[in-house]
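Onboarding guide, step 5: your first structure request.
Type a short instruction followed by the sequence, for example:

Predict the 3D structure of this protein.
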Amino acid sequence: MRDGILNDLRDRVVGPVLLPGDAGYDAARTPWNLSVDQRVDAVVEAEHAGDVVAVVRFAREHGLAVTAQPSGHGAAPLGDGTILLRTRALDEVSIDPGGAAVRVGAGVPWSRVQEVASPHGLTGLLGSAPHTSVVGYTLGGGLSWFSRRWGRASDHVTAFDVVTADGDTVRVDAETDPDLFWALRGGGGDFAIVTAMEFGLQEAGLVQGGQMMWPGEQAARVLAAFREVTWNAPPQLTVWLRLFRPPVPDGQPMVIVDSTFVGAAEEAGRLLKPLEAAGAPVLDTRRARRPVELGDITGDPVDPAPLRARTEMLTDLDDTTVYALARAAGELPPLIAVQVRHLGGALAASTGAAGPVEDPFLISMMTVPFGPPEPGIARRRALADTLSLSGGPKPFTLLAPEEKAAAAFEPRTLDRLRAIKRERDPGGVVRGNHPVLG
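The system replies with structure tokens like these:
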């Protein structure tokens, strides 16, 4: 019965509709994180915003839900009763250099924004992976290289074009619909399907940025220096530390500090000078970069891969935490990486549903799944038990696939998001990767 109904969907949209059993269905339903299973009733590749309207109205008529993903970064498991809507063809990019503003379609990656903004000395508030989608990242708040200076990406949105759960096209901003505008700025994709977004850019010019790398046995000294750097870091400076072991035979553990600084090279060098106490790095890629080159700093993987990651908030880099992390540098497997990000600065004043960030650090622990059992999960838990974790709200975009939306919000914020969801979409037609009612 449902197969027949879903076949009728092909008559409603211009883009391809793939059902279970169709050639290409498995590839189309698979997200970037290959460990996430999305066994949906159909995958629709929207050709334009009109296809989004048609899919939402179809789902509403037949008691189905719609989840929008350009490529599937940040995906969570999906199952029966869901249409997966791929929006990568919504690829409009229009920049207003004089107004330091840009309009993007739902399928546009950060790399495209940086390509058009960088020649004008402007930047978006992208993260470490420029191949991720602007809209999906921003709906989750967006934690950027520049968030200590300018807040989250969601703080700078001026308008959304959306398709509501009723199948209507609406422009949403602070005046036309303040409640929905608030929810979309960091509350996830559970309230409407965004087809386009407008937001402000920042003046950056050249950014001092790069990577410093030491052998893993120097982790204690690097961690101590990293802590000293963060004590005195102005908002223009962002530093992240990684413990990493290359996933190759006999790969040796390394400790890495990634940094960006909006300002002069001399000042960046002065602020990072405590790292000299850790000894000469075996690699130092720091240099002046145009905003379009920021994706080269961490070298995040572009190709899809299986991954298990868990992020927690840290209250402090106290001696116990530094000792535990230094010890972990030599005991990573089955973890492949542990990253500590320095937060603070303008993040403490973020607006919208994303809200302020109170904790000064976060830690992400990553492993490649194999098993069951998965030894990486036990190792991750053992490390977490030794750290000064706060239990505070996590960045929405860093939620693990199995986590609930509640982990990203203070109770009062979650209550407001749930009230907006019940009012705007009582039938649950729009389904985000992490539903607020889940």
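Each response can be followed by summary notes, for example: The mean pLDDT is 94.
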